[in-house]
Amino acid sequence: MLSQAVIDHITQRGVKEIISQDEFVTMLKSGKPLRLKMGFDPSRPDIHLGHVVGLRKLRQLQELGHQVILIVGDWTAQIGDPSGRSATRPMLTHEEVVSNAESYMRQFFKVVDRERTKVEWQSQWFGKFSLADVLRLTSKFTLAQLLERDDFAKRFKEHHPIAITELLYPLLQAYDSVVIESDVEFGGSDQMFNLLVGRELQGMMGQKPQQCFLMPILVGTDGVQKMSKSLGNYVALEEEPNDMYGKLMSLPDELIVPYFDYLTDMPDAELGEVSQTLQAESVNPMELKKRLAREITATFHDQQMASEAQENFERVVQRRDLPHDIPEFQLRQSSGEDDRSLSRLLVSAGLASSNGEAKRLINQKAVQLIRHPEEAATLDSDSAGAGLQPGDVIKVGRRRFVRLTD
Question: What's the first-to-final CA gap in the chain, in angstroms?
């Protein structure tokens, strides 16, 4: 028998809503192993801390004896979004889907237990679908029902186009639940509509409707919007330790408690104490942030790397010293026909991903030249690369450095 404390932890800690919570608790108490559905769109290979909120809940339930069914949306990923309105549904080749899925699963299993997970590829059932199967599926729902989804309703009201294919995606996701006989489906609170469609379709098909486990949306490092790679406010699971630690130290103070809540195993009583001390301003938020950053970095690397990342942060950001191990870059690699523009050098040295990003960094005065540890000069002109010399250190932002060599 599960204790009430365990049930409360599963259903309340890091949870937005459960539909229906009473039914879910009854299922937990029954002792029957549950099939926990988690689907993902392999059009993107990366996982960030926003995804980890749900993955941690899956792991907690696995440790109680339940099984995760991971659905790889390979079939829908190869269709893409013909409307061109969705940046998250590009049309992919089979090879791209497989590559993205492998990358995703490598990160997924940093949190979720691989031994208690079954991976299902959507194409196993949709690859056999005929037009008759599609028509039978669409007959289960009306257009009015699908337009109840917030983004569809908004676009319809504003007379923006909605492709028929887009309307099919919730039905296809719902059919996944039918095929694997899902007991519980997990998703962010912004996925409520799709999860409820799955619950309804299962009932129509004579199955016990799945429970919908909705996770809270993690606010990104900007403190404003949902964590997203496209917004640049994310912390990826495969960040280097220094970058992961540094990004977490940039969090606004008001996110300290939610991050401890959703992403760590800090006991509930201690979490309450942390919240009270922050409200009473009886603790320096910097110290709590260091603990948070160290704990999360250790989770995805190890304790030694987390400690080294903290030491690096204190030395480079707080004391404004140079890192011990600065990557080196041969100055002549950035030049071609005597062209030593600063933007070209930043890209060649790996300090910027593109020429456009390099120019933005220069315009934002985020690029500095350090010739002596106590002196830094802002490089605010693309032509500044012509005056660089071997031995110079280039600093971009707060944490990226490179030392120029001949």
Answer: 69
* Pair 143, 285 in one domain: no
Question: In 3D, which of 137, 202, 196, 200 has the Cα closest to residue 171?
Answer: 137
3-state secondary structure of 156: helix
Which CATH number do you get for residue 208?
Answer: 3.40.50.620
Cis amide prior to 20 (ω within 30 degrees): yes
Gap between the Cα atoms of 384 and 207, Å rounded: 67
Give the mean model confidence (pLDDT) for residues 54-70: 96
**CA 21/CA 27 separation, integer angstroms:** 10
Residue with tokens 């490089």: 379
Strands 375-378 and 367-372: antiparallel
Per-residue model confidence (pLDDT) at position 80: 55
Contacts of 234 (CB under 8 A, 6+ apart): 48, 49, 50, 220, 221, 227, 228
**126: nearest Cα among 82, 185, 174, 183:** 174
pTM to 2 decimal places: 0.79
The pair of structure tokens assigned to 305 is 């790397």
Pairing of strands 67-72, 35-40: parallel
- Based on the fold, state whether residues 300 and 360 are members of the same structural domain: no
Which residue matches tokens 């195993």?
265
Rounded distance between C-alpha atoms, residue 217 and residue 190, angstroms: 8
What range defines the domain where residue 263 resides? 241-318
